[in-house]
Specification:
Length: 167
Amino acid sequence: MPNRSFQRTPSAPRSGPLNSNVRLTAMKYLFRSLVIIVASALTGVVVAEELATHGSICVAPMPEKASILDAETGNRRGYISYKFTVRLDKGKWFEVPEERPFKIERIDLDKKHLLSIRDGDQLIESFWFTFNGRGGADLCLSYKPWYQTWLLEPPRNRPWCKCKNGD
């Protein structure tokens, strides 16, 4: 005896006001989607290409009371002036901000980069990285009191590392 539980019986197409409303709604969504796609294609070609080849680093401001928090752990690094500057590759030195983050932009995603950090005139840290190895095209550089270390990682909705475009 054949198993008929998987057989489908053809049904007549539905008609009426419900079916025409569904079609009208689907047509509206299709039209809106096409408009968005065409507008994106006309205005965003360069932006999409740049996003695919360049990354950025948001340099977070120094945490409040970093020196006090570091003192609680005995300042493992010794004297710290908290006048930090950072440099990417052989570029210019930037001061680590005290209040608002800033962004280093247009960094080649496919290359290996050297990030250097000074306290005053003394080089205290430097390391090589790739964006792929750090987990994203947009990264955040931030100082961690107590541990007296620097982190370079994706921002992951951290409130201290919110750079706006053009910062």
